[in-house]
Amino acid sequence: MLQKIDLLSFLLILIGSIMVYGSKYIFKLLKVDFEDKRNIIFKLIGLVIAGIGFLRILEVI
User: Fold this and answer.
1) Are 20 and 50 in contact (CB under 8 A)?
2) Is the pTM of the predicted complex or chain greater than 0.90?
């Protein structure tokens, strides 16, 4: 299974995970107001990006 991991899949998973788990710190770094609606949208985008990376590893996409 580890032979199927390419650089793009790994980067997609990494970027998506950082977007989901580090959203509060990313908003602080960018000096943007931390709102619930904006946070949820940002996390959902991160989940989609990470999901695409996982599906590339599983060769679904």
Assistant:
1) yes
2) no
Note down the domain range covering 39.
2-57
> Contact at 8 Å (CB) between 12 and 50?
yes
Total tally of structural domains belonging to the chain:
1
Residue 51: band (very low, low, confident or very high) from pLDDT cuts 50, 70, 90: very high
Please count the residues of the chain.
Answer: 61
Cβ count near 49 (within 10 Å): 19
4-40 burial by CB neighbour count: b if 16+ within 10 A, else e? Answer: eeeeebeebbeebeebbeebeebbeeeeeeeeeeeee
